[in-house]
Amino acid sequence: MNLLIKINPVTRIIALMVLTTPLLLSLDVMSAAIALVATIILAPFAGVTWKMLLKRGWMLFLMAPVAALSMALYGRPDGKEYFSFLLIHVTDNSLALAAAIGLRVLAIGLPVVVLIARIDPTDLGDGLAQLLKLPERFVIGAVAGSRLMTLFREDWYSMSRARRARGIADQGQIKHFFTMAFGLLVLSLRRGSKLATAMEARGFGRTTGRTWARESTVGARDLVLILVCAAISAIALTVSIQTGFFKFLGT
Fold first, then answer.
1. Using the 8-state DSSP alphabet, how is residue 248 labeled?
2. Are 91 and 81 in contact (CB under 8 A)?
3. Cα of 181 vs its chain's centroid, Å
């Protein structure tokens, strides 16, 4: 089930901002936990299974404990002290901040995985230019660049096989990496130059009277998505305030 399949990509970005921005006002466990649980529960309705969520958000699950550990060791000391050494002070307040920051990383990061997953760059470009009225040449160039980024891995493998066939691949790992990176940079610049010339020849440089192959529109589903995200953030902050967990910017 994927209820976001007909949602405009621009709406997804706006909904993401509506959901995550209010959560930055408070550094507490309650609001972060509510937003995180809501994201996990609603993820399958967006076409992202829990297995996919874990696979795509693995970096966040690694970053959260690291952020929490640093906050536990160096957070503002207050309350009962459990351990101290030089600048390290593990107290009730630092542990509470550690739990909050760990959940906050997941509560803000996982919605990105859910809402931005499977966005077509062309659809996003149409929405940015037609709905948000961003500069058309900039949007088209960004879309073309994002399309070419998918070729980087294939280019890397092709260059690696070519160097191995010529017998020049047996070098130190560091030297090999920088040589490959420089070759990939040169190849990207050449391809970008050719693409710019081709796009200019096909009229992509025109600044007036532009037409679009597909019209970017918004509807009732887009409004519902924004309202749902707003409701999640509002409920999270309201419960946090009512239960006394709310800490404005962690103070």
1. B
2. yes
3. 25
SS3 239: helix
**Separation between Cα atoms, residue 28 and residue 68, nearest integer Å:** 12
Give the amino acid at 216: S
The pTM (predicted TM-score) of the whole model is 0.76
H runs (alpha helix) in 43-91: 50-56, 58-74
Task: For residue range 211-249, list pLDDT tens digits in order.
Answer: 777 778 888 888 998 999 999 999 999 998 888 878 776
Q: How far is CA 61 from CA 57, 98, 107, 143, 239, in A?
A: 7, 14, 11, 30, 25
Q: Number of helices and strands (H, E) in the chain?
A: 10, 2
Q: Which residue has the tokens 């600048």?
A: 87
How far is Cα of residue 54 from the mean position of the Cα atoms in its chain? 15
Least confident of 18-22, 25-29, 134-138, 206-210: 206-210
| Token pair belonging to 226 | 């924004």
Contact 28, 100 (CB under 8 A): yes
C-alpha–C-alpha distance, residues 15 and 195, integer Å: 33
Nearest CA to 139 out of 189, 199, 186 is that of 199
Q: Which of helix, strand or coil describes residue 96? A: helix
Distances (CA, A) of 97 to 74, 132, 189: 10, 38, 46
| Residue type at 142 in one-letter notation | A
